[in-house]
Structures are given as structure tokens and as C-alpha cells.
Amino acid sequence: MRDVIYLDRMEQAETLLKPQRVEVLRQLAAPRSCTEIAEVLDQTPQRVHYHVKKLVKAGLATQVSERRVRGIQEGLYQAVARSYWLSPHLVGRIGSRDELALGHLVDLAEQIQADVAALDRSSELPSVGVSGEIRVRPEERQEFLAELQTTLQDLFTRYGGAEGDAFRIALACYPKGEDR
Known about the structure:
The protein is α+β, with helices and mostly antiparallel strands. β2 (61-69) and β3 form a beta hairpin. The longest helix is centred in the last third of the chain and has 19 residues, at 141-159. The protein starts with a strand and ends in a 21-residue tail after the last helix. The protein is built from 6 helices and 4 strands.
């Protein structure tokens, strides 16, 4: 089972965004049959089977084995991940995105989600996360943003060669909100 699956196809999102299916998917944290899930959720096995088949078709669950019960083959199913992230691009883009627009941050966050979801998280990976708050007077905003951009560009230039491990650097700088 993977830690995270990044969903970027509309049919996957549509399959997942049904409350009953989410409950079925939660029950599939460990391999289970439709009959077992039906008992827990107080549903009929046929109704659960319908939802499980939709989850399997969308790639959100998989059949992991079969067993013989009272003369019939019964499938055991399991979720393919512990978490499912929906891509913001499923809603679509509205307007243009330039580097200084808040919409660019949404695109950046989406890229980070996709990158992290694609990582093999079976071992410890070198990474760093930094968060902080900087207070800048309105008349210094442009100077601050220009200096920040220059500092990062210097790092990209110094370490941007073709040799070594590739790392993605993403920095988001935005107004904090209510307490500006």
C-alpha cells in the first residue's frame, strides 16, 4: 500500500467524492471482502460490491486475493493508498498566472503535492521544510521581493549543474492574512 496517491483524473475524483464510497474505502485499509464490509457498514454485500468495483476501476482499490466461501469465490480487496490527494487542476484554471500572482502559489502547491506523492517513501529521504514570518513595511515590499528572488537565483546558479542529486526548491511568499 502506498502512502499517498495523487489523483489528477476527473473520473478518479468523481469516484472518490461519494460519501458511501469513502466509507467503503476506509474499510479497505486492510484486505476485506464485500461481505465483511457490508456487515460493518450495515449495507447489503451487493451494494458494497458495486462501490468496490467502482473503486477498483478508478485505481483506488485493488483485489489482493480470493478465497472460497460456501462454495463460491469471494474476492478480498484493499485500498491502494493511505491518503488520496486531489489535484487542484481538476477544477481548471481561471485567468492567467504570473510569478507575482497568488494563483501562482496554488500552481506551486499543486506541483509540490504531485512531487511528494510520487516519491518512494519506503526509506528516509533528505529534505528540509522551513517556515517563518517576515514583516516588511509596505514601502519595502518590492525591494524585499527582489532581494529574495536574487538570493534564490544565486543558489540556483551555484548549485544548478548537471551533476549530483536533483532537488526541487519551492518557496512561497504571501501575505499572512488577518494579522498583516
